Amino acid sequence: MYRSLWHLLIVQLLILIALLLPAIPVESEKYDFFFVVDITRSMNVRDYLDVNGDPQSRLEKVKADLNQVLLQLPCGSTVGLGIFTERMPNIMFSPIEVCSNYLEIRDSIQHLDWRMAWVADSNIGLAFYNTIRLMQRLELQHSHLVFMTDGHEAPPINPRYTPDFSELMQNSERIIKGIVVGTGEHGLSRIPKFDEEGVQTGYYTAEDVPHQSSFGLPEDPTQIEGYVPRNAPWGNVRHDGNEHLSNVREAYLTGLAEQSGFVYHHLQSAAAFSAALMQPDFASTAKRASRFNHIPAAIALLLLLLLYPIEQIFRRAAKQIHKASATQT
Amino acid sequence: MNIVFQFPWLLALCPLVVVPWISQFLPERLASWNQLVVRSDSSKRLDVLLRLTGSVALLCLLIALAGPQQIERKLQRIGTGAHIVFVLDRSASMDETFGGWMAGDDEKSKGAVAQELLSSFIDERPHDMFAVTAFSTQPIFVTPLTENRTITQAAINTMLSPGLAFTNVPKGLAMGLSLFRDQPVTGSRVIVLVSDGAASLDHRAQRTLREWFERYQVRLYWFFLRTENGMGITTVPNSPREDNPRVMPERYLDMFFRTLSTPYQAYEIDTPESLQAAIDQLDELENRPLLYQEIIPRSDLSDIFYLIALFCVFLLSLVKALEAK
């Protein structure tokens, strides 16, 4: 049988199988994410470093790392994009397949800009709440939410009016899983201030921003210094604080994540971010048609090589060496 | 022809093609005297041919295994169509129905109706390029001008999320116009403004918009989604006192659009049916010759190499079958 006609016929058969083998659906992992990015002003804080070691704003960092994630996600995964400012999320596009639409998705992410913000305040708790509600929509139903923010509320919120996540989670028709991604460093940094044309004119100072909530009614008026029920329900004393400086409010964000059953991740590197996203928790299996024709083809190649006797090759080589040594002496 | 390989490292095995030249798959026969075997030219040629066939078979199998792929190509074609930029109003009032009520189960919001009809419009126009921009208080870049329908459809879905804030038409239009900046002029260029309100334009905005519409040669379609009993484009003022852009922004925006040097059409839409009629008319009007790019997706070339390899091995087996026993 060895090196006989049969040998060649088997090689032919294997190549024929490689040619005709249809694509077989196999289970493979895929991920479905809906990214919602904070575009409020604190996202302009430059407390990250880009690849060249230059300061990079939180928003730019998010854009760069999202692009890396797009390249990491296996084909068949879907990605949608949204933005939020104040308390409302806005769908940019509903989730679509990542590989075949990569260029357009990348373009859309590149264009994210803080100047798209239709309102200037940040109310992250409510924005998160509204985004989870939005996730009930048909178009977003199969996706996991990735909520990216620095957690800097501006103006500070009144804890009395925080939304009730446990009720929302109980009433929702399906369990929404996701991840809260904290952006920014732990140390405080200044928030850049821009004019109408987008040119930086300086930084926010302590006088520019309120340092304490003055929304609604205080929880416990007796605690407030200078409380006058009608004229000064939040006290008549000036408050100083650090609200004009920004860092990632991790305690607040982990709190939000805990209430809603989300995971928290602090954005540091694109690799760690990708790893945090590509968790078994967020994976689902999809059938993807794959071709396995390389297996019979590889065997065919090996058999075809074996057709040529190895001894001959060695004999030939030995002869060459012999010849060479003969001419030398 | 741009060919890429899935596993280019496999090509490092290419030196294996010399194997048939230093070895022979037909068994050696002993001859009592070399002179008895005729060293004819034809047998020499046959020998070279056999070794070559073996080499080619090996090479083709190797190449096929390395996964050769023709990368995505773009072919220029001429068809009819347009470059269409949607400028979508995302103001809070888009959540209401045409009757001015909260959208419920029985009646859809203006945004949802517009989304549905635009979506079917996109499906009906095969050669058009679409871009989506949105605006409320500020303009929002959503997707670039592209042939890719999937992302355009996905972006139209933005109309389904709750409305945001106010209606800042000039900024939205400026964003829409800016998308034509680096595009080649071919076919018709169209901006479809879908809004349910208007805003007054200051002189600076008016000048910029007028200039850009002319420079980029863009035709404007305004689908004004009018709320029942609300102010319309053609509403005539009751008294001269009311005749100003603050009270009647729709009327004044329309008057400004009429002064543009490029063609302009306004459609006042107060029912889902009238929106369909307006879209049909746009479909009819915007059919100029257009250079468009047909995308031929990435294709697998390995089958060709498998075929060549199969043929070569078939030749070898023929020779083997004819071998003298």
From TrEMBL, chain A:
Pfam families linked to this entry: VWA_2
Bilayer-spanning residue ranges: 292-310
All residue ranges annotated as the VWFA domain in the record: 32-228
Keywords: Membrane, Transmembrane, Transmembrane helix
Protein origin, superkingdom: Bacteria
SUPFAM superfamilies referenced in this protein's UniProt entry, alphabetically: vWA-like
Protein name: MxaL protein
Organism: Methylophaga lonarensis MPL
Source taxonomy: Bacteria, Pseudomonadati, Pseudomonadota, Gammaproteobacteria, Thiotrichales
From TrEMBL, chain B:
Annotated SUPFAM superfamilies: vWA-like (SSF53300)
CDD domains: vWFA (cd00198)
Keyword Membrane: yes
Transmembrane segments: 6-27, 48-67, 304-322
PROSITE patterns linked to this entry: VWFA
Domain VWFA: 83-282
Record-linked SMART domains: VWA
Entries under InterPro entries matching the protein: UPF0353/GerABKA_families, VWF_A, vWFA_dom_sf
Protein keywords: Cell membrane, Membrane, Transmembrane, Transmembrane helix
Gene3D superfamilies cross-referenced by the UniProt entry: von Willebrand factor, type A domain
PANTHER family tied to this protein: LEUCINE ZIPPER PROTEIN 4, SPORE GERMINATION PROTEIN
Listed name of the protein: MxaC protein
Protein's organism: Methylophaga lonarensis MPL
